[in-house]
């Protein structure tokens, strides 16, 4: 009976367990089925997109499930124009030169196809993809982005940066990552130390390619490219590149595909630009007014300054004025730079003072404003600076403070952008973009009084202001000169009365009266000079002024007549422009009315069309009549410069960068400039040359010749890697990994492993003279032989026996007492 009662209880206990297992199996099956359905849905979407012959989303690009999942997880739904153009070409294996403005998604345009082509993890072949970035910030950002996109793959990426521990970088490369992201200087240092061959690299990316060549990395890039295989795929990505790619022929491109999206739209349509003409001494006061009254509280703002001394000086001023801020510049400590950037990203401080180190690739999401405290001397630098804002469909504003000596650069910028410089007037709209105006004196005086009080209370600010003025002198020496035409044209603009910018207009009758009075005082010129007032004709000074007037009166009259004529021409041009806009409106109506309109730019499709359009020829020639006073034939005239001359000139590379960089001393680290110059120009007698030569006080400047024939600094080759191998006992580790691992380990990466003999595996050492070149050092092995293990066990057993014997003797002695 007991046995019968035991059976149903077992059946009763097993029933819910079976139900639970069935439920778990059904749940897992449903989850797997849902994942398969999602993947099948993606495939269907891709097939539908292919059938429609539209680019659509990322599903239509034939990407794997893991990469596509990482893209969707990152939040991307539709590819940007540069991604839509570049990704399919890179997946085909072609070399690519891609140009698009900052913030257009260039990083994903090369990361997505590279991760797709790498496939899965390959731990025995070495790095297969190499990405070179000009700055550590851009490299860190690319590394973070690569990990997010490859989250659902088993690919491994490593970043090699200057300022980090080289031992950690040696260890990371020995782990054979699939993707290497590095800066050229430190990467070449590691390559030279480890004697890497880089034969396993199949894909090379030059991010911000023009910046890499401009920053003086030619030697490093030449040596790195020499070590790469010839069959690699090379990609050049940047925001600005010249049309002539002669400067990039050294990169070894073979039949590259040119993808150029930067010419049409150099700036985002959502970006509003504001240009403020002011004096150099008034820039700080205008900056305070912008941050206090115009920029909304809580908006993230970048302020670009010329030198690191300006960043430190303005930071103290803003902190005293109640504006919390931080700063980043090139010579700042790496830990401090990381902390300051994290503060700004977490919105703990709304303002960051930066030099041009942050103009390339530093991605701060949701940035609202950029202030150019020092106007950039190159148009493409302006494009990179203001490219921080107005990203991903957001709006943003770029404020530029332009001093009189920086005004010609403003004209160069507008020639580069292909836009006309528009000056503000009484009826200008504050929301209009691209206006240039001045700031009312009342606004400046209010903030200048606050600055005077700060400087009177603090001697540190006075000293820092003096340091900033000295640093500015050095900066101006290294700043490139503007074009002569822009200098001439800007002098005419500066002679005219520039009205206030609508953003700074003060609605007060007293202010208007005051400004008119000041303008009248500025223009007032007395009829006679101080030499003529109260003097008679017998005075020598009176006679000198009389002769001067006789010679210069005609020149003054001619100049005034020229200015009046230029003013009339300008007014006529404005009226003709207004009438021209009416004509254009009529042409748009004609195009809407008629189905086919053939103009001078339209290609004739067939002979019938050419015959049919013959009747419209007189009208076309009539509209192209030469203007009165002009002898140009619009149809046959060949201009001196190409239509895109100014745009291409702004995009070209600096060919004499090394010479300019040697003179561009922005960080004044020395206490006495005379001592630094004396030390730099010291002469030393050379016995071989029999003459005095300049002494090289810096031993790091000595150079060595590499295998490619390039000369690089001798500091790239030292014994750091050998010391690390001894310290990490790499020979013993590689010996313990077995013969198979030795054969397959680093065939592609070329780490240069040493052959390990059988005696070394057994822990024996040769005592011959060939093995004892230096002081003999014994390193403890990790693996023990059988004899050593047996000896250790016997010693431990003997020790335990003696300890046990002593305990027994003590216990017996206690019992006796």
Automatic annotation (TrEMBL):
Residues 737-746 have a biased composition (Acidic residues). Residues 87-259 form the Helicase ATP-binding domain. One of its GO terms (cellular component) is cytosol. The keyword tRNA-binding does not apply. It is an enzyme of class 3 (hydrolase). Residues 56-84 form the DEAD-box RNA helicase Q domain. InterPro entries: DBP10_C, DDX54/DBP10_DEAD-box_helicase, DEAD/DEAH_box_helicase_dom, DEAD_box_RNA_helicase, Helicase_ATP-bd, Helicase_C-like, P-loop_NTPase, RNA-helicase_DEAD-box_CS. Gene3D superfamilies: P-loop containing nucleotide triphosphate hydrolases (3.40.50.300). It is found in: Nucleus, Nucleolus. It comes from the Eukaryota. Residues 1-20, 763-781, 792-817 have a biased composition (Basic residues). Keywords: ATP-binding, Helicase, Hydrolase, Nucleotide-binding, Nucleus, RNA-binding. Its EC number is 3.6.4.13. GO terms for molecular function: ATP binding; ATP hydrolysis activity; RNA binding; RNA helicase activity. A motif (Q motif) lies at residues 56-84. Residues 1-37, 564-584, 599-629, 686-709, 725-817 are annotated as: Disordered. Residues 286-434 form the Helicase C-terminal domain. It catalyses: ATP + H2O = ADP + phosphate + H(+). Residues 564-575, 782-791 have a biased composition (Basic and acidic residues). Belongs to the DEAD box helicase family. DDX54/DBP10 subfamily. This is RNA helicase. It comes from Hyalomma excavatum.
């Amino acid at each position: 009976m007991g046995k019968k009662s035991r059976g149903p209880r077992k059946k009763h206990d097993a029933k819910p367990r079976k139900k639970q297992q069935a439920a778990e199996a059904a749940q897992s099956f449903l989850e797997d089925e849902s994942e398969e359905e999602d993947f099948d849905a993606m495939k269907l979407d891709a097939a539908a997109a292919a059938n429609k012959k539209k680019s659509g989303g990322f599903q239509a690009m034939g990407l794997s499930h893991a990469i596509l999942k990482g893209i969707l997880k990152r939040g991307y739904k539709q590819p940007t124009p540069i991604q839509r153009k570049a990704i399919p070409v890179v997946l085909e294996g072609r070399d690519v030169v891609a140009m698009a403005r900052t913030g257009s998604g260039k990083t994903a345009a090369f990361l997505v196809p590279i991760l797709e082509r790498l496939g899965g993890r390959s731990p025995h072949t070495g790095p297969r993809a190499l990405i070179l970035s000009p700055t550590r910030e851009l490299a860190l950002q690319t590394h973070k982005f690569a990990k997010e996109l490859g989250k659902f793959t088993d690919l491994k990426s490593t970043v090699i940066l200057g300022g980090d521990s080289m031992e950690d970088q040696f260890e990371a490369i020995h782990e054979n990552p699939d993707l290497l992201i590095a800066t050229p200087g430190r990467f070449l240092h590691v390559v030279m130390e480890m004697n890497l061959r880089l034969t396993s690299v199949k894909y090379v990316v030059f991010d911000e390619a023009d910046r890499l060549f401009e920053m003086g990395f030619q030697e490093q890039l030449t040596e790195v490219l020499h070590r790469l295989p010839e069959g690699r795929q090379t990609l050049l990505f940047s925001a600005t590149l010249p049309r002539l790619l002669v400067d990039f022929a050294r990169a070894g491109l073979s039949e590259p595909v040119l993808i150029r999206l930067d010419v049409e739209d150099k700036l985002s349509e959502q970006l509003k630009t504001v240009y403020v003409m002011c004096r150099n001494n008034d820039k700080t006061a205008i900056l305070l007014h912008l941050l206090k009254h115009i920029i909304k509280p809580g908006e993230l703002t970048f302020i670009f300054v010329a030198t690191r001394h300006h960043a430190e000086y303005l930071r103290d001023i803003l902190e005293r004025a109640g504006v919390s801020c931080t700063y980043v510049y090139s010579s700042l400590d790496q830990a401090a730079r990381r902390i300051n950037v994290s503060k700004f990203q977490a919105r703990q401080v709304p303002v960051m003072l930066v030099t041009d180190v942050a103009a390339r690739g530093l991605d701060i999401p949701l940035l609202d404003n950029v202030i150019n405290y020092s106007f950039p001397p190159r148009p493409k630098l302006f494009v990179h600076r203001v490219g921080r804002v107005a990203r991903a469909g957001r709006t943003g504003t770029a404020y530029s403070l332009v001093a009189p000596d920086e005004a010609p650069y403003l004209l160069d910028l507008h020639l580069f952008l292909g836009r006309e410089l528009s000056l503000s007037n009484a009826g200008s709209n504050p929301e209009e973009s691209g206006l240039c105006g001045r700031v009312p004196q009342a606004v400046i005086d209010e903030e200048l009084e606050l600055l005077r009080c700060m400087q009177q209370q603090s001697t540190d600010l006075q000293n820092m202001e003096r340091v900033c003025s000295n640093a500015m002198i050095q900066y101006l020496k290294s700043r490139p000169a503007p074009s002569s035409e822009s200098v001439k044209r800007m002098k005419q603009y500066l002679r005219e009365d520039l009205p206030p910018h609508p953003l700074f207009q003060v609605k007060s009758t007293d202010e208007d009266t005051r400004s008119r009075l000041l303008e009248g005082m500025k223009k007032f010129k007395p009829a006679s000079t101080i030499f003529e007032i109260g003097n008679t004709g017998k005075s020598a000074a009176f006679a000198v002024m009389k002769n001067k007037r006789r010679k210069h009166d005609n020149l003054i009259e001619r100049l005034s007549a020229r200015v009046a004529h230029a003013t009339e021409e300008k007014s006529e041009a404005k009226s003709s422009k207004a009438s021209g806009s009416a004509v254009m409106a009529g042409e748009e109506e004609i195009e809407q009315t008629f189905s086919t309109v053939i103009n001078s730019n339209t290609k004739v499709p067939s002979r019938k069309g050419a015959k049919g359009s013959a009747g419209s020829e007189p009208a076309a020639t009539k509209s192209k009549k030469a203007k009165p006073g002009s002898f140009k034939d619009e149809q046959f005239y060949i201009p001196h410069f190409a239509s895109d001359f100014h745009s291409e000139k702004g995009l070209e590379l600096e060919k004499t960068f090394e010479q300019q960089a040697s003179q561009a001393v922005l960080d004044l680290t020395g206490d006495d400039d005379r001592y630094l110059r004396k030390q730099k120009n010291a002469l030393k007698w050379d016995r071989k040359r029999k003459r005095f030569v300049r002494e090289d006080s810096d031993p790091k400047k000595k150079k060595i010749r590499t295998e490619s024939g390039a000369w690089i600094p001798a500091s790239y080759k030292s014994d750091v890697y050998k010391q690390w191998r001894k310290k990490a006992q790499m020979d013993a580790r590689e010996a313990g990994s077995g013969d198979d691992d030795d054969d397959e380990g680093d065939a592609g990466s070329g780490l240069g492993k040493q052959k390990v003999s059988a005696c070394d595996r057994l822990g024996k050492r040769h005592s011959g003279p060939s093995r004892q070149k230096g002081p003999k050092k014994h390193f403890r092995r990790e693996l023990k032989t059988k004899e050593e293990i047996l000896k250790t066990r016997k010693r431990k057993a003997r020790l335990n026996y003696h300890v046990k014997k002593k305990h027994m003797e003590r216990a017996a002695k206690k019992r006796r007492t």
